[in-house]
Design a protein that fits this description.
The complex is a heterodimer. By secondary structure, chain A is α/β, with parallel strands linked by helices. Chain A is built from nine helices and eight strands. In chain A, α2 packs across α9 and α7 packs parallel to α8. The longest helix of chain A is centred in the N-terminal third of the chain and has 17 residues. Chain B is α/β, with parallel strands linked by helices. Chain B is elongated and about 65 Å long. The chains are: A alpha/beta, B alpha/beta. The interface between A and B is large, with 40 and 38 residues. The complex binds guanosine-5'-triphosphate (2 copies) and magnesium ion (2 copies).
């Protein structure tokens, strides 16, 4: 977690610890860990919050984030999850930059029998997303998942592109996909994405390794938006809802 | 005297904050701060800019002490480079950039698509090979990565290739079976031609925090010695300070840095400018 976030956190813990008397059954150390654990859970949003659906279909989900964070894979995972719940998702290949990005999403779509929308030869993600949503409405696809290109939060043109996509299709949820191993930079990234385009939640990926996942705390405390899912593997079934208490235990190691 | 101490302490606090913010990590930061404290006492340095200069010098030392110069290409042919690392760090893109560089330097380059697992990984490298104007060895998706590597090395010898670069699938360092797969690739190569691969580079994402230490440690162990690090995505806001901890503990030098997504966005590592960038 970001060390400024940590300092603030430590201050809260100190306050709680001083405010509480000593419980007879626990050692001060155990009690301290308990307080820290509780504080972490509170900080991370006490209970799991999941995807909300739009009042009228299609529900549009837009996945955004830095390069390589796991957006394309997460798009496939969400599509699989929603299909399993009886929805008819449409995956949209809005990354026109990365070599073979469209093929990558198409292969994932094939794996889970979910259609993937593309416009052959188009270099305009705004058009791709707009036409995709229109197509979904006509075809009765009730969830549209927009897989966007990885980009830097400090790249004005690319952040602008996201704003334009958002204005064009008005996604119900904008989800920030963050690599679970991200260090101090998590705060800058989450804050900037939230300030510039607004996010409704995030997905923390690659937590099947030994990364503590402190980025979860940073993201949550700076955006005040919930972490909705975690990625726990490369396969499309490796997506779990985010549980604050489990994350707290993990961060505390 | 008291006043001097106070200034010194505030300055050290400021420096500590900066180091922690750039992912240098607690242990290495403490070591640097203590080293700095000792030197400022012995040199009686008061001036903040002099202290900062001592600090930068110390950090450059950490980054360069154990690093030998990169291997020269005319020792053997083909010169084989194996590229490894966890998922999404920029291996495939970096290989595209490296291939182009060697080709422009007049070398005959071959790249091998040994990521036979991830969706469209081979297609992705194929695009980069075309951009870099180099040949590509590929099998079908799902093929044995060791077989691709073997095939590529044979082709490199047959075609008088100067540099062979092998792309591998991203994998988490904690996945034993995947690390075994990587060991197998290395073993197969070494059996074919002793000493191959001549370089084993780990690609680290500058946005990665302390986990990079675990990554470097385990890849280093599994592959019996990483020869270098490529630190990518330094064009973002992350500073990649974690390489200080890695240099300090494992003595693996940073060879190159990735500063963008286009073919020219690869630079040789310069310890001094890297350290200066940590403070901006
Ligand atoms: N182990 C593990 N790997 C993951 C997870 N999520 C994604 N990956 C891998 O991370 C790498 C990057 O995933 P992508 O889905 O291509 O990431 P991306 O954000 O779409 O990348 P760009 O489009 O280039 O920005 C791939 O090798 C994925 O298989 C996860 O939860 N666990
Ligand atoms: N901004 C920036 N992006 C980079 C850099 N290097 C790679 N990328 C991007 O990071 C993403 C992942 O790059 P890849 O080359 O697919 O990474 P990889 O390590 O091969 O990924 P896997 O094979 O899935 O493990 C792509 O969107 C690249 O364009 C860099 O130096 N700067
Ligand atoms: Mg993608
Ligand atoms: Mg790759």
């Amino acid at each position: 977690m970001n060390f400024r976030v940590a300092r603030e956190f430590i201050e809260n813990v100190k306050q709680k610890a001083l405010g509480q008397g000593v419980l007879k059954s626990l050692t001060p150390g155990q009690q301290m860990v308990g307080i820290v654990h509780q504080e972490l859970i509170v900080l991370m949003g006490e209970q799991a919050v999941e995807l909300s659906l739009a009042p009228a279909p299609p529900t549009i989900l837009m996945l955004v984030g830095l390069q390589g964070s796991g957006k394309t894979t997460a798009s496939g995972k969400l599509a699989r999850l929603l299909r399993g719940r009886g929805h008819h998702p449409l995956l949209v290949a809005a990354d026109v930059y990365r070599p073979a990005a469209i093929q990558q999403l198409q292969i994932l779509g094939q794996t889970i029998s979910v259609p993937v929308f593309t416009i052959d030869g188009s270099r305009d993600p705004v058009t791709i997303c707009t036409v995709a949503v229109e197509r979904a409405r006509n075809a009765g696809q009730d969830v549209v998942i927009l897989d966007t290109a990885g980009r830097l939060h400090i790249d004005d043109e690319m952040m602008d592109e996201l704003t334009r996509i958002k204005e064009a299709v008005e996604p119900h949820e904008t989800l920030l996909v963050v690599d679970g191993m991200t260090g101090q930079d998590a705060v800058n990234v989450a804050d900037t994405f939230n300030q510039r385009i607004g996010i409704d939640g995030s997905i923390l990926t690659k937590l099947d390794g030994d990364a503590r996942g402190g980025a979860a705390l940073s993201i949550r405390s700076v955006t005040h938006k919930p972490i909705k899912f975690i990625g726990v593997g490369e396969k499309l079934d490796a997506l779990e809802p985010f549980h604050p208490e489990r994350m707290a235990s993990r961060i505390l190691g | 005297i008291r006043r001097y101490d106070k200034i010194d302490d505030d300055l050290l606090d400021e420096i500590e904050a900066i180091l922690l913010q750039t992912d240098v990590g607690v242990d290495t930061t403490t070591k640097i701060i203590e080293g700095l404290r000792a030197r400022t006492v012995e040199e009686r340095t008061k001036d903040p800019s002099a202290i900062y200069e001592l600090l930068r010098h110390e950090m450059v030392q950490i980054l360069t002490t154990h690093s030998s110069p990169p291997p020269s290409l005319d020792q053997h042919r083909p010169h084989v480079i194996m590229v490894v690392g966890v998922n999404g760090t920029g291996k495939t893109t970096t290989i595209g950039k490296m291939a182009d560089r060697y080709r422009r330097d007049g070398k005959k380059v071959l790249v091998a698509a040994a990521d036979t697992f991830r969706a469209a990984a081979i297609d992705q490298l194929a695009v980069w090979a075309t951009r870099a104007e180099v040949d590509l060895i590929r099998h079908q998706p799902g093929a044995d990565p060791a077989a691709v590597a073997f095939d590529a090395l044979q082709a490199a010898v047959a075609r008088n290739i100067d540099v062979l670069i092998i792309d591998t699938a991203g994998r988490l360092h904690t996945k034993t079976n995947l690390m075994e797969e990587l060991k197998k690739i290395k073993r197969i190569l070494g059996k074919q031609i002793p000493g191959v691969p001549h370089e084993t580079l780990i690609v680290l994402d500058a946005t990665t925090g302390q986990n990079a230490i675990s990554q470097a440690t385990l890849f280093n162990q599994a592959l019996d010695g990483l020869t270098g690090i490529v630190l990518t995505k330094l064009d973002g806001t992350a500073k990649g300070g974690i390489v200080l901890a890695i240099s300090d503990r494992l003595s693996i030098p940073v060879r190159m840095i990735g500063v963008g997504e286009t073919i020219d966005d690869l630079q040789d590592f310069d310890a001094r400018s890297f350290v200066e960038a940590l403070f901006t």
